Every structure is written in C-alpha cells, then in structure tokens.
Amino acid sequence: MNKTLELVIFDWDGTLFDSVGQIVQSLQFAAKEYQQPLTDDAAKSIIGLGLPEVAQVLFPDVPELHADILQCYATHYVENSKGDAWFEGVAEMLQTLKAEGIKLAVATGKSRKGLDRVLSQTQSHELFVVTRAASETKSKPDPLMLAEILRITGINAENAIMVGDTSYDLEMAQNIAMPRIGVSYGVHTPETLAQFHPIAIAEDVASLHQVLLNQVNLKQAV
After folding, report:
1. SS3 content of the chain, % helix, strand, coil (to 5)
2. What are the tens digits of pLDDT across the range 8-58?
3. Which CATH architecture has domain 7-18+85-221?
4. What CA–CA distance (Å, rounded) separates 55 from 213?
5. N or C: which end of the chain has fewer CB within 10 A?
6. Would you call 105 helix, strand, or coil by DSSP?
7. Contact status, residue 132 vs residue 108, Cβ threshold 8 Å
8. What is the DSSP string of 37-49?
9. How far apart are alpha carbons 207 and 147 in whole angstroms?
10. Mind telling me which NCBIfam families this protein's record contains (predicted)?
C-alpha cells in the first residue's frame, strides 16, 4: 500500500505557538502562591501534558491543592500571554500545506477553552479540519486523541504525520504507529526526541517547512 501523506497533525505550544516561556512563568507564579517548590526545568518538562497530569507530576504531595493551583496558573497565563504568537514562518507553512491539499489538525495538551482562545487569537479556526484538546480526551502520550482525529478525518495512521516538540508528542504517535517529526526549538532536546525514531528533527520552522514539503513531494511522486 502506498504511504501517501494526507494529514499533518501539529502540537500547539512550543511547536506552532511561541508560548513556552509564559507557561513556565505562570506555573512558577502559581507554585509560589501556594508555597510549592518548582524549578524552571521541572515546569518546562511537563509542557504537553493535560492540566490534571501536570498537577499530578509537579505537585504529587498536595492533591488537595491541585484545583486551586491550576486555576491560579490558568488565570495568570490568560492575563499575561496576550503577546504570545505563532513562531515566525508558521502561518506561511500552514497556508502552503493547505494549498497543497494536505489536511491540517491540532492535538494539544491545552484545554478546549484554552485552545479555542488561541485559535481565535491567531484567526486560524478555518485552517484545521479538526482539533483535539486534552480536556476532552486522554492526555498524551496516550494515542486516543490521534485515534479520534483519524476517525473523524477517515485517514489511516500511515498516511498522517504528527509534529511535536516533546517526547509526549512523539511517543503518542509511536503508540499508534504514526510517522512523526520532532522540532528542537520547543521543549525537549534532540537527544530526547530521537528516542522515538522520528522521520526528522527540525531545528527551526523553516527546516520543518522544508521537511514537510519533502514529504508532500514524496506523495506526489508515488
């Protein structure tokens, strides 16, 4: 069977959207408010997980504070992230892929409310045929959100590519036998991403754009 590319699924934070710094800052703010120790590295390491999983990993000893910490984080993030935007070159990359007939989707650890807010902020609802947020399915690296995207689009895993900046993204794709591309300009290092055998690891958006165009060209050559 020909493995032609029909669908590209993107993570959001750290892959399309330059928001990692603000996420870390907001987690640090919430941790301090509730007198919980938290390093920058620890805060950064959990980006990509759903919020309940974030609380379980970062604050395992105070489950009674999870709801309050997460609400504090969310409030601080919304109030201070209005300047966050797509990485340079992302808009052009998405438009080019769509013009080539590739379907686009999002699979993110954000909540549905948070994802809808940034989709509106970037005026990009119409770019994506489907989006899935961790609050409405299972958190990465469980592959359920990818399985749901494939079911909705009617596309097989082998005809899709997952693009992400964390091990959670690539492990999720590996768990459903979906080809994957890592990006090293977000959260996790190339060494961490390489453990999940991606097609490529892109160091910036321009490199990612080229890797994806190469995959489109492979499709056209089949």
Report:
1. 50, 15, 35
2. 999 999 999 999 899 999 999 999 999 999 999 999 888 888 889 999 999
3. 3-Layer(aba) Sandwich (3.40)
4. 38
5. N
6. strand
7. yes
8. ---HHHHHHTBTB
9. 27
10. HAD-SF-IA-v1
Stated pTM of the model:
0.90
For the sheet containing 130-133, what is the strand order? 130-133, 103-108, 7-10, 160-164, 180-183, 200-202
pLDDT tens figures, 84-111: 889 999 999 999 999 999 999 999 999 9
Q: Tell me: the pLDDT tens digits for 153-175?
A: 999 999 999 999 999 999 999 99
Please compute Rg for the chain using Cα positions.
Answer: 17
- What are the φ and ψ backbone dihedral angles of 183, each rounded to 5 degrees? -125, 135
**What 8-state DSSP symbol labels residue 100?**
T
